[in-house]
Amino acid sequence: MDTSRDADQPLRTLGQVVGATLVLLLATVVFIMAISGSFRNYLQEWLGPWLLASAVAMGALSLWTLLDATDKLAGLKRDTHGHGSPKVAALLLLPALLFAVSAPASLGADAASSTAAKPKSTASDTIEFPPLPTDSVTEMSVQDFEDRYAFGDPKLLVGRPVRLLGFVAKQSTLPEGQWSVNRFRIYCCVADASLFTVPVEGVAKPEGDDVWVEVEGVINLDASKEHPVLTASKVKVIQQPEDPYL
After folding, report:
1. Any transmembrane segments, and where (predicted)?
2. What is the number of other CB atoms lying within 10 angstroms of the CB of residue 154?
3. Cβ(245)–Cβ(44) under 8 Å?
4. Which SS3 state, helix, strand or coil, does residue 216 take?
5. Helical (H) or strand (E) element with 172
6. First and final CA of the chain: distance in angstroms?
7. Which of 132, 165, 158, 166 is nearest to 229 (CA)?
8. Are strands 194-201 and 212-219 parallel, antiparallel or unpaired?
9. Weakest mean pLDDT among 58-62, 188-192, 212-216
10. How far apart are CA 173 and CA 195, in angstroms?
């Protein structure tokens, strides 16, 4: 009879308890993020169902492992540090709850302020975009407005009122009196984020951190040869949208 193996059994079982608790911890965090929608701060929305499914699968497997390990501990004659596992689980649950409640915010002004606005494309060929009306305000994304300037004919934007939605930032490369309205675009997660930014003039920069706004105005081609500067006529502070990315 291998007595050393029997003596180590409680420790091995306790290791299963700790490992399963860690997996359950991760599953809890992912589940809360998927249900609350906070995962949109880091991932595209279409990944939500996959996150939820993975959280449920991890949670079920970890609970099954915990129940199995608990039965083993209850059946062992020797109880080597067996009473410590509930305390370990309780300590591991606390940081999971803290992370779920105070998870980092989406990419915003801090990230945009350290990113210079992209200069106008030097490509010789232009793209024909549908014309914009002159008698009404056209709502479009920051990316669409920037694309029309960079890849289309900028003169076709003159006198066309537009409304852009994004967060406020102040890049160090912008001249005095200008700030910017910005949106990040992610294709999968924040690791592949690209910044789209439009400088704004004519209205004072709204105060505060990570302020989201709707800006109405017209382009001023004389303000910059590289960037589509918007002369604003109206700035409205709004709540951050549920999906902060393009």
Report:
1. 14-35, 47-67, 88-109
2. 15
3. yes
4. strand
5. none
6. 65
7. 158
8. unpaired
9. 188-192
10. 15
